Amino acid sequence: MPKYFFRLLALALVLVIGNVGFLAFGVADEYGRDDFPAEFVFGSGTSAYQVEGAALEDGRSFSIWDAYAHSGFCDGANGDIACDGYHKYKEDIKLMVDTGLEAFRFSISWSRLIPNGRGSVNEKGLQFYNDFINRLIAHGIQPHVTLNHIDLPLILEDEYGGWLSRKSVKDFVAFADVCFREFGDRVLHWTTFNEANLYALGGYDTGSSPPGRCSSPFGYINCSRGDSTHEPYLVAHHFLLAHASTVRLYREKYKAMQYGSVGINLLAFWFEPYTNTIQDVKATQRANDFYLGWFLNPLVKGDYPETVKKSAGNRIPTFTKLESQKIKGSFDFLGINHYTTLYIKDNPNDLETDTRDVYADMALIYSGIEFPITEFPVIPIGLEKLLNHLKEEYRNPPIYIHENGQVQARNGTLMDTPRVEYLHAYIGAVLSALRNGSNTKGYFVWSFFDLLEMVGGYNYGYGLYYVDLDDKELTRYPKLSAHWYANFLKGNNINVIIPKVKLKDSFSN
Ligand code: IFM
């Protein structure tokens, strides 16, 4: 697509958004930045492999995600160059400033910082993240850092089977130690794992994310190695141990000097029963137990939920008394990634066979999204109910909504009205939840750019900014949603160019 096309479109968007009186079908917005507490943070985010590129530059080594992508699983795409964020970060931070971001969530590539997985630190990697963090802070943008966004160094996968081995716990904690030591004087918000639950399910049950392990008949891919019946439970157990040890390290060695906090992130759908039958209602509870309780029960109550233990039997590891004590209470906040609501139908047939994966252990069927996902259904009440559920069931922990956003085919359009509608509705739902006592502390739009997606490669995007992959400069262009978010964050009292989604709609149901 020619460059001038984007420039003209970008100019048109600026004119439209900036020119309040000119909007034909805008209706006054019903909430603004000022309706949220001043200390509540709004941001956006990315992750290392999805944006950085420079895959083998300046000493970085491959991660399991590089290997997965190079095996053709991300629709044939890979992150060798991605958005070239490694080289363009100064320009990118300028865009964050233009957008008015108060916080930015990103991950540190373990294999860039410690290319051998353990041992010596790569000075160039260290320099990059120091520069990045310093520049964010110089512009008043809080860095929120994820330690592992599905990108374990490949060398550790090859050496001992990665997260399948308990050795991963020690190496992860040592990596976290380096990060706290080097960046913790400036970074106050740390997340150990991104979507720990999906990491276990995608990586080891269905094979639909790195390292792509699964066993027939459970895989979404052709399973060449893995064991979908046992491995997801085993790696989830190791994630929890690694997480708890990392939190302990931070609390004992760094917290008194650095004053930061450490949390974990989970993919969190909201689930609604497909019908009002007792079976579907119970199946919906099971969906929550498997998706959230799998991690949150140990973190809040010290053990896996009874429903999960009952279905998984001896395939789920047990915690020793000491481990359980160590895990219980080992988080300062919970990060959630929420995209949409799914409808749940009971499916007891799944329990009739002894050879089951985690999904069969759940004994349910989902509906609500179809693959390939082209756009998520907009159901903001789902987010509100989810936040309420976390408040009721898990003692109202501090929450950061680390990811929320709308996917669209990446066809070059900057007029992403559906994304604006989506964001407007979901941010409204957050406000409702806050007013109902949720302890939510921040909200991050996923994602800042269109980037490499696990599902769909570069064919789909969530970005506020479009990255022109046909242009060797990889020029970034703000979409309508970037202008909309910027206006919201800057407190400009503008009308929005969207059909009205009234806040009170999200109270109904
Ligand atoms: O891009 C991903 C991200 O890496 C993890 N959460 C879901 C996003 C959208 O698919």
Structure description:
With 509 residues, this protein is of the alpha/beta class. The protein has a single domain (3-323, 334-489), classed as TIM Barrel (Alpha-Beta Barrel). The protein has 17 helices and 17 strands. The chain has helices spanning 3-18, 48-51, 64-70, 85-99, 110-113, 123-138, 154-160, 167-183, 196-206, 231-258, 278-301, 306-312, 321-327, 358-362, 380-393, 417-435, 480-489; strands at 27-28, 41-45, 103-107, 142-148, 189-193, 261-267, 270-273, 333-337, 341-346, 364-367, 399-403, 408-409, 440-446, 460-461, 465-467, 476-478, 495-496. An 8-stranded parallel beta barrel has the order 2-3-4-5-6-8-11-13, surrounded by 6 helices. The chain has a 3-stranded mixed sheet with strand order 7-9-10. A two-stranded antiparallel ribbon has the order 1-17. A hairpin with an 8-residue loop joins β15 (465-467) and β16 (476-478). α4 packs parallel to α6 (123-138) and α16 (417-435) runs parallel beside α17 (480-489). It is globular and about 55 Å long. Bound molecules: 5-hydroxymethyl-3,4-dihydroxypiperidine.
